[in-house]
Amino acid sequence: MIGILETLGYVIVAGTVAQMALGLYGTWRRGYLERRSFAAEARLFERRVELSLRHAEAERDLAVNSWSGFRKLKVVRKVREAEDVHSLELVAHNGRPLPRYLPGQFLTFQFRLPDRSKPLVRCYSLSDAPSDGGRYRISVKKVPAPEGAACDPGIVSGYLNDVVREGDILDVRGPTGAFTGDPASDQPIVLIAGGIGITPLLSMLNAMCDGQTEREIRLFYGVRNRDQHAFAEHIAGLRRLYPTLHVVTCYSRPTEACVLGRDYDRPGRIDLALLRDTLPSTNYLFYLCGPAPMMESVAGGLRDWGVPSEDIRVEAFGAATAHRQPTERPAAEAKPGVEVRFDRSGKTLNWDGSAGSILALAESNGVALESGCRAGHCGTCIVAIKAGAVDYVAEPAVVPEPGTCLACMAVPRDRLILDA
Ligand SMILES: NC(=O)C1=CN([C@@H]2O[C@H](COP(=O)(O)OP(=O)(O)OC[C@H]3O[C@@H](n4cnc5c(N)ncnc54)[C@H](OP(=O)(O)O)[C@@H]3O)[C@@H](O)[C@H]2O)C=CC1
């Protein structure tokens, strides 16, 4: 009997001790988890503050140290990234530091080519994260000029890919552009790139990864096939390093050499169905850069899906994209049948909406206007307005002074007289 009572006593004591131990463990574990989540939150907060500070520093640096007009930058490195795509790394020819820029911004170049009477102006996105060393990188795809094109696209991209070498000097305006994001935001972000449109998005991606971001980033990257898949290894490396980065690569024209699951994730183009399949919700900031039809259809689809327009940011490059930005008001909405007088040329033309912009109207009627990027970025086509007013088919990155307009993006609001 005593034996049974003794055993029972041991069992009760053991049970109490075990309960106390469990209780203590529970308290310790709760404290541990709280400390861990507090530490994680503190780390996240620190990173956000750091990213925010870097951004503010870059803005200050740009405001103080950027330059007006063209400055001489030297090509110090030229790297092949894919078929017909080369990256050029640039430093100041005089060895002085270059200001930091905001990821997503672009540079404006002026080229004096031997067989051209006039300089050609082009904009190219910076394709890497800003670095303290003040080295800039652009990545350019050689684009063939469409037949009968009035504006020579392809000439400069061909020149940069085929002719320019390390050691050459280029004329460059300071970084600019509003296709940038808030680096301290923790709102999940979707980057949608078509072909060489990856460049500004890669700059953002690299900057976020440099900042050790824990933000959810989803990159959708559409190219034709492995030969055109620029930065494939670099992005694969980031994908391995950053668990919050999710990448979906689409090949629209895979060749036999392309392996699904190794080189790419999906056959076909990026479309809304893919985005809806992949994204758990619409609660993202969307950044798009690529061929105009892609931006048009994807941005339109996103809006139909319920994404607010202010959460969809697009970057337009060149004549093909500038006039078809998805957020723009169609040019045809500006009243057709308006008279436009190019005063110095002595020509009065009728704008019926088909030309697309004042620059296009001028060019198709033999009025010589200076032009550059044709996307409202570089300011080369600024013309003084003598009478009348204009509207813009999309908000230009360069804001022209009152009394002037950017001919590449402007349409007449009413009867217009230009000093051109
Ligand atoms: N020259 C440069 O360095 C720069 C150029 N750009 C601009 O970027 C654009 C991209 O050029 P590039 O690399 O030649 O592009 P590509 O013609 O190679 O197209 C890239 C991918 O986008 C797909 N695509 C085309 N249309 C659609 C659509 N409607 N919806 C979904 N996907 C689509 C293509 O599919 P498919 O094979 O079926 O056509 C392809 O898979 C150009 O318009 C250019 O103006 C931007 C920055 C710099």
Q: Which structural class do the helices and strands define?
A: alpha/beta
Question: What is the makeup of the main sheet?
Answer: 6 strands, antiparallel
> What's the shape?
elongated
How would you name the CATH homologous superfamily of the largest domain? Nucleotide-binding domain of ferredoxin-NADP reductase (FNR) module
User: Which regions contain 5 or more consecutive residues with pLDDT less than 50?
Assistant: 319-332
Tell me the CATH architecture of the largest domain: 3-Layer(aba) Sandwich
Number of discrete domains:
3
CATH class of the largest domain: Alpha Beta
The level of helicity is 25-40%
End-to-end CA span:
116 Å
Bound molecules: NADPH dihydro-nicotinamide-adenine-dinucleotide phosphate
Transmembrane segments: 7-28
GO molecular function: 2 iron, 2 sulfur cluster binding; flavin adenine dinucleotide binding; metal ion binding; nitric oxide dioxygenase NAD(P)H activity
Domain FAD-binding FR-type: 68-182
EC number: 1.14.12.17
Structural description of this entry:
- With 420 residues, the protein is an alpha/beta fold.
- It has 3 domains: 71-176, Beta Barrel (Elongation Factor Tu (Ef-tu), domain 3), CATH 2.40.30; 189-322, Rossmann fold (3-Layer(aba) Sandwich), CATH 3.40.50.80; 331-418, Ubiquitin-like (UB roll), CATH 3.10.20.30.
- The protein is built from 8 helices and 19 strands.
- Strand 3 (106-111) and strand 4 form a beta hairpin.
- The radius of gyration is 28 Å and the shape is elongated.
- The N and C termini lie far apart (116 Å).
- The model is unreliable at 319-332 (pLDDT under 50).
- Residues 124-125, 140-141, 143, 157, 194-197, 199, 222-224, 228, 252-253, 269-271, 290-294, 297, 317-318, 320-321 line the site of NADPH dihydro-nicotinamide-adenine-dinucleotide phosphate.
